[in-house]
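A quick aside before the break. I want you to see a complete sequence-to-structure record at least once, exactly as it would be stored in a machine-readable document. Don't worry about memorizing anything.
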Amino acid sequence: MADRRRYAVVQLDVFSERPLEGNQLAVFPDATGLSDAAMQALAREMNFSETTFVIPRNAEIEREKGVRVRIFTVQEELPFAGHPTLGTALVLRGAAITAPKEIILDLAAGPVPVTFEDMGDGRFFAEMRQRDPHFGRIHQPEEVANALGLNMRDLDPGLPIQTVSTGLPFAIVPLRSVTALGKVSTGLWPRMHEYLRHTDAPFFYFVAPSGSNRKEPHLRARMIFYNGEDPATGSAAGCAAAWFVKHGVAKPGEHVLIEQGVEMKRPSKIFVRADVEKGHVTNVRVGGHAVEVMRGEFLL
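That is the input. The structure line, written in tokens, reads:
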């Protein structure tokens, strides 16, 4: 046992202020010495949507380039993902000697700044600025409905199904209602994947009007992938924020609340907004809370 190395791990629930809700995340604050294969194996061991690994560098490099972080699903490394970015930044902030107002994460997709707002009572709201969006393919509604096993009347006919990327591409699918959203099933993943592998998006992100009486835009969302359903998808929410503004669902700079994970009893709240400058969507921001639920060690 003495020759086994200890690796600390922190577990959080992200996009929630309440434990046992939101999206689970495991953060390894110091992954020094771990190989790519070991990181992937640890991500499979945790079996969350994503697990992150912080690679410490000297202070001067981190001030210049940011804190190096790698993100793994149970199957692959991702260049970017939303709730891992937010959660990891909050862990780093909590470990800092001084309380920074911003931390930059150096991800495979590039640097992502995360800012913090003190809400009092030890609570913090974190908001990341994602890369400016790239708008890709417009998908044919008939083809998407067939791939999803939905009726055409389940789709919103007034809005396009479009691929958007702010670091990781998603095909944004607008549905008419929460009832239509409820028809989406994890069992449909093989059909979804068969369609998506011929497109410019690896995943769908489904959005629908919440049906609430709130004055500001308020939507529900779901995301299905090869490991089941994701309780909160910050990367997709950023793509959706850009899509909202481009297609008039929200005004530039307007806050939008996206609720996700309701169907799987892991409710999450994601706050998004985006601006328009010189006719281009920019300054895509995704924010939320996180709560720490566990600390431990792996012996390897």
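Two observations worth writing down. Residues 6-131+289-299 form a domain with the Diaminopimelate Epimerase; Chain A, domain 1 fold (CATH 3.10.310.10). DSSP finds seven helices and 19 strands in the chain. We'll return to this after the break.
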